[in-house]
Structure formats: structure tokens, C-alpha cells
């Protein structure tokens, strides 16, 4: 069963009657378009049925690669950018130890490359890899996207020096196009373990394909549960036409209403730093899907209570530009209570025996109230816990709602024409042949 | 000499004639108000002269604490939130190894607490601290701010179990009010090494006081050079009335013009992930100083090229809401060049011998051109490198420009009345005595 709840109590006073019949009809039309494949970008709808369609062989192959490599490595380098980076990182950071890089766990520590052109980052990375054992996943449809191609060329050379050509090949996994492309050719030549990126699933919708599943499994997490969560949410999204029973419809309606009522910014807020990269993934999903034709909601994010001592002042009292969407987690995995202190100089004995999470929830409730009073419409999305299953639900929920929302706003959710602009300038400046 | 340069070429077409006499007069009036101490919030202007005024004894005491603790510890836990957290983290992350947490350096690794109420974060932290040697700085004017007070109570109890009361006291540094407060009392009772937070310097302007200097020095960086950079920029800011020679005036004028011309959002963009926390520090500085009375520019940030494959589409083609400020770094610390590859399947041989940074700079130039074409005013702030000295310059530059900008917008830059709203709700919900 779907365990995700939407709370609109702190939204309704600002978006008066947003869940009316007219808007519900718009959302339902968008939902039908998505399901029937009759909208713009309909050759990129593979993600809709993927959690049902994924073959068991893929999961088994991933498991085999994890079992094969885990004893040999301390670090697993994931080379990718955008949709070949953010989804895996979002799930891994949500689930792993906050100090995973300190390397005390039994699973490989996933680190990232190909997502930046910082020379110092690569110098630091190569020094780390000099002194440790590692393997690599390189994720790119074409194999020629500049950032990951540069990273892979450097790391491939490093691996071949360190492990020999055969040893390097055994430690490299390629996730790429099924039929064509440079990376596919390299992987075939070298004999890498290979996975396909389905043709009909775009980067930002690909986290439940091998693009995300392989790194997530390598970090030690349960990809079957992740997929099961996505399937649960898929049932709801595909079958419920009533927004009160379909959180994706309600979310899409809320944000489109906010946009029309003059709130051009949506801030996705969480109260635990483990979800920072889920917000980064969300920013790509919504920013790339909706930010076109001079339209769309500008995605922003914050982590509370940290940023209540930073962006909090602006949210409370600055220009009234934003709707706030709070991603709320009911229960943490651990329990840490406030100890008693005889002297009580800090005055915290009134909290003695309370868990930190109880205090965090009072902070959250207090924040939502305060922002509401200050003129911020607040939507709450609650999950019972952060787990593979709830993350699978959240991922599918956000993807489906994104499609609905973009269709409601009259744009194609599945293209990203603006991403090419900087690239073509860059190629010209770099003197790329043929540009 | 001040090495920071402002480039307005990609701003002028959008903010036509923004550097006119009228606006320059406004900026100059704000600058004079700041220097003369005649504006709102003038009891919090201690940061203006601090880099000149800081006594050599403070730097010596910090050095002594670093020398005393470094051989004994692997981790140094900095407990603080907002201005007692972001400044130190901004400088440390800008300068340290990208994988510092993996612990291969000779200096203590700085980690953070008291900036969150995530129960899982504390569970992870306490597991880490169980198995390693550490010391702590607790940073709070009052000692009763909930987040750091909760963290310190838990960590203090842990230290006293692990090292005994005396051992714990030797490993604890308190940075707090000079005259009053709970933390001051605890520190006196226990005999901690103590530093004062000047009365006339607010949290978000405090990074060059012991609040930032102590953690930065503990991480192994040169705080004398940081202060020297700030002094260089102070000379410029205090003495130059001509915006063409005073980058802080030019920056304040540019952003106030953008705001008035209908760009309510400013995105601070960098091209190296090491500057992510400098952007977080900047968000607090500007968001808290300007976001009041339903006014001010909404701060946002992105890291490129990473986020060109995420927020890039929105910036290029979404609603025209934002001005973009690019923090540009001319040279990296390291050199990593693209190797030759015989097969050249990835097609990158045209880049062979180029450094990654050369590619990054073409990406930056290409991005600025593309965003300009798409309708985004772009301001560039360039530093020759990321070092203690240039960070000191940047910090003072941003602080001074912030004061000027807020005065130009008619608000008090030095208060933060909106931060209290969530706290008072939270205290009521927690049943705090006397609330």
C-alpha cells in the first residue's frame, strides 16, 4: 500500500479552492494524456511501466556484479552527470551513514566523477584512487558527453596502469545505449559488464533503470524494495482519477495553482540532511521538465533547521515569491534521547528523555505555522520513514506528478532543448572538429 | 593589492546604464552610512574594522590550541548553526581535499554538529566518535540556542564517558559571549579554552572572528593570510568612492538595479564544487540581511557544470526571474591534463594535452554567452585562485557589498527578526517552561 500522505491544510488558505472541478479536470486530462501516450514527448514514456516491466535478469545481473566486486574494492566510482548521477546519489545519500566516506561500513563507498570539470576535484580523486582499491561504473547514453567522457578517459588510463588492461576491464561496468554510441563500442572492445539504458526513458526519469539501480545496489541497498515501492505508487497514479486519492494529481494541481496565483518559486524543504540530494534530483526533474518557453516554476531547496538560520529570514519576511513543499519523515531509523544534566545551565532539562526527532518535529510544525503566518503557502508530503520502499514511492510519485504538472502548463515534459546552448558555445571555444 | 575583478559586460545590455550617477550616489550614500555608523543596525558594525583590530594574542592562542590538540585527535567537531557554522565550513571546504573525510591528511578532519536536528545524523556521528579520537569547539553566543545546545549536551556526556571530566574539558573549546550566557558559565566551571565573540559583530558577519578562525586553523589553513586578504579588501571598500574602483559598490548597484528591473532572484554560480559552501554562506549573508519587510532579492545557487545538466534548462529557457552572478576562479591548485587515446572512440583527442581547467573555462564562457542570449543578466566576479588570501578578500567584499545593498534597499542589514518566528512556535509545542 502507498504510505505517502499529502497535507494541504496550510495551502488552502492561500490557494483558495485550488482543488476545484475545473482544475481537477485539467489534471485528469493531463493524467490521461500521460497514460495513453497522446501528449508531447510521448516517445519517452518508458518510465511509466518500467517498475512492472523490468526483467528479473537485470536485477540478478546487478546482484552478481555487486557480489563479484564488493570483496575487491573499497571505493566504487560512479561516472555520470545529470540524470546519470543525481538519482543514484539521491537514494544512496538518503540511506547511507552520514559519514560513509570515513569508510567504516562493509559495503563499497560510492563516490562520484564525471559530474564536474573541476581540475582540483580530479587531482584529489586520483590521489585517493592511487592508494586504494576501486571499481567503476560509467554511465552515458552516447559516451561522448564531455564531462563523463573526460573523467572516464582519465580514470580508465589510471585503472589500466594500476590493474592492467584485463584487470581494469573486470573492474569496469558500462551503462549505455542498447544499440549505438562510443561507450557501447569501448565496452564491447574491452569486455566490460554491460547494462542498457532503455531508449524510451530520459535521463532524469532513469533512476529505476540500471543507471540508478547498479550504484544503489553496490552501496548495499535493496533495489527490489525500491522497485516494489515504485510499483505501489504506480498502481495509485495509474488507477486513481480522484485527486484526494491520487497524491500526484493533488501535488500537480497545487503547484500549478500556486504558479498561476503569482508564486513563481517552489522551495522543496526537508528536515534531515540525508535528503539534500533527493532535493537536487527533484530540481533536475522539475527544472528540466517545466522550465521552457519562458514558463515554469523555479525550483529551489533548503534543509531545515540548518537553513532556518540562513534562508529562514527571507522565507519568513522577504518578497512573497514562493510556495514551500515540506518533505516530512515521520520516524528516524535510530533513537537518540536528550540526557539529564544536573546543573542544567543550558536550560534543556525540560527536554530530558525526549528524542531529537521529537524536537525536530516540533521545529517542523512550528516552522510550517510561522511561514504560513508570514504568507507562505505550505504543502506537506509525508512518508513514514526513509527506506528503499518509501524512496521508490517518492520517486514514482514525483515523476508522475511532474508529467501531469508540465502538461497542465502546456509544455513537453520530456525534452530539454536549452541544455544544448552552453555545449555548442563550449565546443566552438574548444575548437572541436566539425563544430 | 586587491585581486578581485568584476566584469559587467554581460550585465550592461540588461540593466542598461545601471552604473549611472544617480545610482552611484545612492551607493555612495549607503557606503558613507556604513562607514560613519549612521545607518540602521549601527551597533553591529564591529566587522568593518575587525581585520585591522584583531589582536595578535587571539591568533597566537588559536595556534596554541591547534598545536596542542592536533596530535591527539583525528576529528574536530564544530558545534554551531547559522553564522556559527557556515563561515568556517565555507572556507574549509574551499581549501581542503575533496575527500577529506576519508582521512588521509595530517590535519584533523573538521566535521559538524549542532546545525541539524536529524536524529539519524546524531546516531551516525556518535558511532563515528565511539571509535576515534576527537575534540570539540562549541560556538554559541548564548549557549541556549536549541540545535547546538542539544548537540553539545549529547557530545559533552559522550566525551566525559570516554575521556573523563578533565580529559573532556581539555578537548573542548568554547567560543561565546564575553560577559554572559550559559555557555560562558559552563566553560568557566569546566575550565575550557575560551574565545570571545565580539558584541558588535552578528553571526553572519563573524567568520573572521574566532568563530571561523579557530575551526579554519584546526583544519590546517593559514588564518593570517585570510585576515590579510580581508584587510586588503577593507582598504578598497573604505577608501574608494568610485564604483569602477570599488567592486563592492559595483556589485551592490548591479543587484539593486536587477531587483528594480524585475529580476527578484539572484543565482550565485560557481564552476568548482569546492565553493558550494561559500554559496551557502552567501545565501545566509544576503538572505538574512535583505529578506525583510516583504523586500529583497531571493538568493539561489548552483554549481556548474554539474547543474547545467539540471537547473541549466530552467535558467536558459524558463521564466525570466533571475540575475546570475558567476564566481570565477582563474587557476586551480593542481594540473590534470587529458591523455591521448589511440582509438579515440570517445572523440576527445582534440582535447589531448589541454587541462581540465581549460575545458572548464570554455564551459564557463560558453555558459555565460548562452544564458545571456537566453535573457539572463550575468555578472562575473573573478579571483585568480582559491586561497586563504582570496577567500579573505571575497568575504570582506561580500560583507561590505551586503551592507551597501541593504541600505540601498531601505532595510536594516544587521537584524533578523523573522528567525524568531519558528522558534517561539517550537518552544510552545515543546512545552518550554515560561513560554
Provide the CATH superfamily of the largest domain in chain A: Glucose-6-phosphate isomerase like protein, domain 1
The most extensive contact between chains is: A-B, 133 and 133 residues
Number of strands of chain A: 10
The main sheet of chain A comes to: 5 strands, mixed
Kindly report the CATH topology of the largest domain in chain A.
Rossmann fold
Q: Look at the structure and give the mean pLDDT of chain A.
A: 96
Secondary-structure-derived class of chain A: alpha/beta
Q: If helices are DSSP runs of H or I spanning 4 or more residues, what is the number of helices of chain A?
A: 15
Which key phrases capture this entry?
homodimer; about 425 residues; alpha/beta; Rossmann fold
Amino acid at each position: 500500500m502507498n504510505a505517502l500522505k499529502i497535507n494541504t491544510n496550510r495551502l488552502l488558505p492561500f490557494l483558495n479552492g485550488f482543488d476545484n472541478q475545473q482544475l481537477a479536470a485539467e489534471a485528469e486530462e493531463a493524467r490521461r494524456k500521460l497514460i495513453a501516450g497522446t501528449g508531447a514527448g510521448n516517445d519517452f514514456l518508458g518510465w511509466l511501466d518500467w517498475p512492472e516491466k523490468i526483467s528479473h535478469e537485470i536485477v540478478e545481473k546487478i546482484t552478481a556484479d555487486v557480489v563479484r566486486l564488493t570483496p575487491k574494492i573499497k571505493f566504487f566510482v560512479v561516472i555520470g552527470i545529470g540524470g546519470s548521477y543525481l538519482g543514484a546519489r539521491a537514494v544512496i545519500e538518503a540511506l547511507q551513514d552520514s559519514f560513509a566516506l570515513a569508510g567504516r561500513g562493509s559495503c563499497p563507498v560510492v563516490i562520484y566523477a564525471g559530474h564536474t570539470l573541476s581540475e582540483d576535484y580530479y587531482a584529489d580523486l586520483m590521489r585517493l584512487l592511487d592508494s586504494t582499491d576501486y571499481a567503476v561504473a560509467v554511465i552515458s547514453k552516447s559516451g561522448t558527453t564531455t564531462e563523463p567522457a573526460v573523467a572516464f578517459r582519465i580514470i580508465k588510463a589510471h585503472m589500466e596502469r594500476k590493474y592492467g588492461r584485463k584487470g581494469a576491464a573486470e573492474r569496469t561496468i558500462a551503462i549505455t545505449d542498447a544499440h549505438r554510441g562510443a561507450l557501447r563500442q569501448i565496452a564491447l572492445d574491452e569486455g566490460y559488464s554491460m547494462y542498457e539504458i532503455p531508449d524510451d526513458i530520459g535521463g532524469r526519469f532513469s533512476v529505476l533503470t540500471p543507471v540508478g539501480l547498479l550504484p544503489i545496489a553496490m552501496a548495499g541497498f535493496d533495489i527490489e524494495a525500491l522497485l516494489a515501492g515504485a510499483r505501489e505508487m504506480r498502481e495509485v497514479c495509474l488507477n486513481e482519477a480522484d485527486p484526494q486519492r491520487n497524491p500526484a494529481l493533488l501535488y500537480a494541481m497545487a503547484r500549478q495553482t500556486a504558479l498561476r496565483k503569482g508564486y513563481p518559486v517552489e522551495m522543496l524543504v526537508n528536515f534531515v540532511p540525508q535528503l539534500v540530494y533527493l532535493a537536487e534530483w527533484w530540481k533536475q526533474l522539475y527544472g528540466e521538465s517545466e522550465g521552457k518557453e519562458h514558463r515554469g516554476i523555479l525550483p529551489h531547496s533548503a534543509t531545515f533547521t540548518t537553513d532556518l538560520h540562513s534562508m529562514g529570514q527571507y522565507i519568513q519576511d522577504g518578497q512573497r515569491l514562493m510556495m514551500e513543499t515540506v518533505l516530512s519523515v515521520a520516524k528516524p531509523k535510530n533513537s537518540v534521547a536528550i540526557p539529564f544534566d544536573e546543573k542544567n545551565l543550558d536550560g534543556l532539562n525540560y527536554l530530558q528523555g525526549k528524542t531529537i526527532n521529537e524536537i525536530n518535529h516540533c521545529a517542523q510544525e512550528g516552522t510550517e505555522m510561522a511561514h504560513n503566518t508570514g504568507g507562505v503557502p505550505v504543502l506537506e508530503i509525508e512518508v513514514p520513514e526513509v527506506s528503499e520502499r518509501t524512496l521508490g514511492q517518492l520517486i514514482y510519485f514525483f515523476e508522475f506528478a511532474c508529467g501531469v504538472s508540465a502538461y497542465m502548463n502546456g509544455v513537453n515534459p520530456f525534452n530539454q532543448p536549452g541544455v544544448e546552448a552552453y555545449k555548442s558555445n563550449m565546443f566552438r571555444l574548444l575548437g572541436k572538429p566539425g563544430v
